[in-house]
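A reminder from the course coordinator: this example appears on the midterm review sheet, so study it carefully.

Given structure:
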């Protein structure tokens, strides 16, 4: 026993001496990476849009690709693209039973998911105020439709196991963790006939969220950065409401790195929220309060437009993650009135926008106005236009 004790003391002295001589510890060296995440606003599929899709395809298999043709290339360029579709996108069996419907209970053709995938969309957020429009069966069918199309989803689940499975994705060599909550369910949570499982684990309802546990699961699964998509706020406002600001601070303090919001149907600004990280270091959390609408049957000021929002995530050789370069492009939904019904296109309205052939003077005026409305809102925050305006050139003196 004394001999073993002597050996232990000698080894301890040896390692202590090495430490005294300043022998450096081995450090993990990371491969530097840079990733761009792109987010589009809400798809609100009123029946006029569904009818247009049926005319472009068939009654039983609508096509929405033509509505997205002008923005398809840009959506596809990012490393990862995310959007939200309000309501249900059920499978064929579900549609055979319930059909399609618009406001106030959205049942949208699942073919839209295929068209989004073809535009480069990688993930859909399913926690929104219309998630339970057709009860829990509708949400479960939507999850299945997204899965069948090969896209990721977050915020809606068919089983407790799915709910507890962290949404983590390796994007360009950086591991992202995703969260998605809605702060409202159009009072469906108050309906006695609703399957209790819908609120227990079916939809990520902010009122019932265990944020710390959700974040811990993501980190345990290897997430290096956490992005949370929030369906929140008050409709038809350009200024984020008190609850949005309060909940953004809760998210930031809990460890979320980026917050992307939707639901108000208006664009709301982006800003940085100060907090401290788990090591007590100062940290700035990027928060965009609302993307506005993307494809919608809504018309009128601000409801017919929105943004595509980007941010860049970088990891350096020491593993430090930074979020930078919040930029946006403005879009507007052109409603073309035809004899057999309206048709729709999502158009860019920023620097390079051109007047499409056949556009009326009134629509051209509205299209340009929408870009200015959004720019005024976004100028109050930290994001800048992805395409900077061309510098003005003075006329040459005579």
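Designed residues:
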């Amino acid at each position: 026993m004394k001999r073993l004790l002597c050996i232990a003391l000698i080894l301890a002295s040896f390692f202590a001496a090495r430490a005294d001589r300043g022998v450096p510890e081995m450090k993990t060296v990371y491969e530097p990476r840079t990733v761009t995440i792109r987010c589009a606003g809400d798809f609100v599929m009123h029946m006029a849009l569904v009818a247009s899709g049926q005319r472009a395809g068939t009654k039983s298999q609508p096509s929405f690709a033509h509505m997205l043709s002008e923005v398809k290339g840009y959506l596809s360029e990012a490393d990862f693209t995310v959007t939200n579709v309000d309501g249900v996108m059920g499978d064929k069996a579900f549609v055979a039973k319930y059909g399609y419907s618009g406001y106030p209970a959205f049942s949208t053709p699942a073919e839209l998911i295929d068209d989004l995938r073809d535009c480069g969309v990688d993930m859909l957020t399913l926690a929104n105020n219309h998630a339970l429009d057709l009860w829990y069966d509708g949400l479960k069918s939507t999850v299945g439709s997204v899965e069948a199309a090969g896209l990721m989803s977050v915020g809606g689940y068919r089983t407790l196991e799915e709910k507890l499975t962290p949404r983590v994705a390796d994007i360009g060599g950086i591991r992202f963790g995703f969260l998605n909550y809605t702060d409202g369910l159009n009072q469906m949570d108050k309906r006695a006939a609703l399957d209790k499982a819908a609120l227990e684990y079916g939809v990520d309802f902010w009122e019932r969220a265990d944020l710390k546990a959700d974040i811990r699961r993501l980190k345990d699964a290897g997430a290096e950065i956490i992005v949370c998509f929030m369906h929140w706020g008050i409709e038809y406002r350009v200024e984020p409401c008190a609850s949005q600001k309060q909940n953004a601070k809760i998210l930031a303090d809990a460890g979320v790195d980026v917050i992307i919001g939707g639901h108000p149907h208006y664009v709301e600004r982006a800003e940085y929220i100060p907090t401290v990280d788990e090591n007590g270091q100062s940290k700035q959390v990027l928060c965009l309060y609302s993307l506005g609408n993307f494809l919608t049957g809504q018309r009128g000021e601000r409801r017919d437009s929105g943004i595509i929002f980007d941010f860049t995530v970088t990891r350096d050789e020491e593993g430090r993650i930074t979020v930078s370069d919040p930029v946006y492009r403005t879009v507007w939904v052109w409603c073309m009135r035809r004899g057999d019904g309206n048709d729709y296109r999502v158009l860019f309205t920023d620097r390079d926008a051109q007047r499409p052939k056949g556009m009326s003077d009134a629509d051209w005026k509205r299209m340009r106005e929408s870009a200015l409305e959004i720019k005024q809102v976004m100028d109050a925050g930290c994001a800048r236009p992805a395409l900077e305006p061309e510098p003005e050139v003075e006329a040459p003196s005579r």
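DSSP finds eleven helices and 15 strands in the chain. The chain has one domain: 33-64+133-385.
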